[in-house]
Amino acid sequence: MVLSEVDKKAFGEAINKKLQELKDDLSTNDGWTFLKEEGGMKSYITDVPNDPNKKVKGGGPIKTNMSPADFMAWLDEKNGDPVKRKDYDPSMIYREIIEEIEPNWVVLHVGLDSGSMMVSNRESLCQMRTYIDDKVAYRVTESCDHESFPKVMGGFVRLNAKLSGWYAEKKNEGELELWYVNHSDPAGYVPAWLANKRLGQAALSALVCKKMIEEE
Fold first, then answer.
1. Secondary structure element (H or E) that encloses residue 7, with its range
2. Mean pLDDT for the chain overall
3. Phi and psi dihedrals of 205, rounded to 5?
4. DSSP 120-145
5. Residues 62/209, Cβ–Cβ less than 8 Å
6. Residue 119: how many CB atoms within 10 A of its CB?
7. Which of 7, 27, 68, 116 is deepest in the core (most CB within 10 A)?
8. Which residues in 172-191 are b (16+ Cβ under 10 Å) and which e?
9. Which overall architecture, per CATH, does domain 5-215 show?
10. Cβ atoms of 120 and 157 closer than 8 Å
11. DSSP per-residue letters across 60-87
């Protein structure tokens, strides 16, 4: 383990703040602008004070017998397999767990295809922590850094993942309430059309999961 107990405490305090931010974002739609409804899933967008990068969220019910813990395991399966990952998130070209702090708490190094030959690919170093109980699960991801972590890969720009969060709750038999929240700073040059496209894709992340799960 690379992180000291002091580092671990600091990382833990930071990620727990993001967990509360995720809960706050999902507790109300006040201040959020409705984007659209597709496949039974609603998406919203909001401005963030003193930040040019908007925050999006999207979600709704999906028909499945999965528990919240099952869903998080399903995400891990899709993200951890390069072949399966192409169906879930084709923009992810690299993903490695570089540190396991505790069970359900890891540090990831991720590479992302920008989607344009005119724009540099992105990468991210982030901590990801999953909180699970019987009926509810949260997964929170945010950028982090440490002197022992990998430096920026050649040809990539390191983005700042300010919050990437999943919420899954078993409210009814055969149904799972699923939501995703995203707030990122891509860093460096990204044209407006591509930034807006990425925002729209992030807002529909829960819909992508819904379609895949209900088709399996």
1. helix 5-27
2. 93
3. -60, -40
4. -EEEEEEEEEEEE-SSEEEEEEEE--
5. yes
6. 17
7. 68
8. eeeebbbbbbbbbebeeebe
9. 2-Layer Sandwich (3.30)
10. yes
11. EEEE----HHHHHHHHHHHHH-HHHHHH
Q: At what angle do helices 192-203 and 205-215 cross, to 10 degrees?
A: 50
Q: Where are the domains of the chain?
A: 5-215
Beta strands in the chain (DSSP E): 33-38, 41-48, 51-63, 92-102, 105-112, 121-132, 136-143, 156-158, 160-172, 175-185
pTM of the model: 0.94
pLDDT tens for each residue of 129-162: 999 988 999 999 999 999 999 999 888 999 999 9
What integer pLDDT is reported at residue 1 of this predicted model? 55
87-110 b/e (C-beta count within 10 Å ≥ 16 → b): ebbebbbebeeebebeebbbbbbb
Token output for 122: 């992105």
